[in-house]
Design brief:
Strand 1 and strand 2 form a beta hairpin. The chain is extended and about 65 Å long. Helix 1 runs antiparallel to helix 2 and helix 3 packs across helix 4. The strands form 2 sheets. It has a 3-stranded antiparallel β-sheet with strand order 3-5-4. The chain has a two-stranded antiparallel ribbon with strand order 1-2. Helix content is about 50%, strand content about 15%. The protein has about 160 residues and is of the alpha+beta class. The protein is built from 5 helices and 5 strands.
């Protein structure tokens, strides 16, 4: 599965106006995150009738997260959790080289399956690997900070 369809617009960095609107809207929606029934909102008028829609709670959470990232100036891509990625797509998400991802697969650090001669990695598996790596890095940084404190290095 490809991440972006050929007809999809390429991601772009949000303008300051878009960031501001995203910030304001995410702040308005955030109090509704606890609503178990979701969020009903007015869309506008169509054929002389007011239309409204119901966003389910999971969509409200996703929308608030999406708007928060846009408010920070980040571009956002939505990837289904069950998506299968190529080694290049996985490398891009990890910010490493494709050969490094291939090595992770060969060393059984990252599960993958073969489709013909190509490897495919579940997005969920990639996120588990990434979260484990980040947790290991944070643990190492905490240990270094504690050591610096013990040695009175002024950090």
């Amino acid at each position: 599965m490809k991440l972006a369809e050929p007809t999809a617009l390429p991601p772009s960095i949000p303008s300051e106006e878009e960031r501001s609107a995203a910030r304001d809207t995410s702040r308005m929606l955030a109090p509704h995150l606890k609503d178990r029934k979701g969020l009903r909102f007015q869309i506008g008028e169509r054929h002389g009738k007011q239309e409204s829609a119901l966003l389910p709670p999971t969509a409200v959470r996703l929308l608030v997260d999406l708007l928060s990232e846009i408010a920070k100036g980040n571009t956002v891509t939505i990837i289904p959790i069950h998506a299968e990625l190529t080694t290049q797509e996985a490398a891009n998400l990890l910010n490493v080289s494709r050969p490094f991802v291939v090595q992770l697969i060969k060393n059984k650090h990252l599960p993958a399956r073969k489709v013909g001669s190509h490897r495919r990695i579940l997005f969920a598996d990639l996120m588990v690997y990434k979260n484990n790596m980040n947790a290991g890095r944070m643990k190492a940084l905490d240990a270094l900070a504690a050591q610096a404190q013990d040695l009175n290095l002024g950090y």
